[in-house]
Amino acid sequence: MMTSQQVLTLGQEAIITMLMVSAPMLLVALVVGLVISIIQAATQVNEMTLTFIPKILAIFGILLLTGPWMLSTLVDYLKRLYSSIPFIIG
């Protein structure tokens, strides 16, 4: 039988893993968006596609760079989760 502490621990580990895996993509999108918006404000060019295309390319690039790390992080989390099933059930 699971206790409330075990449920909270599983939830906390899931949230931390999710934040670790999504942080590189979110940070790159934030930085690229900020740089593009500063350039648009300075040049007064307000084209909507100028914000999306660089963000998509930057996120794709960061996925290529950090993809193996993200995959190994998720696999490690799932291994820990599946190995703890017998202890959770009791």
Describe this structure in words.
This protein has one domain. The protein contains 3 helices and no strands. It has helices spanning 4-43, 49-83, 85-89. It starts with a helix and ends with a helix. The model has no long low-confidence stretch (mean pLDDT 91).
Number of strands: 0
Shape, per Cα inertia axes:
elongated
Distance between the first and last residues' Cα:
6 Å
Cα gyration radius (Å):
19 Å
Work out the count of structural domains. 1
Oligomeric state of the chains in view? single chain
Reading the helices and strands in chain order gives HHH
- Please give the share of residues in helix: over 70%
Give start-end ranges of low-pLDDT stretches.
none
Secondary-structure-based class equals mainly alpha
Question: Average pLDDT across residues?
Answer: 91
The major beta sheet can be summarized as:
none
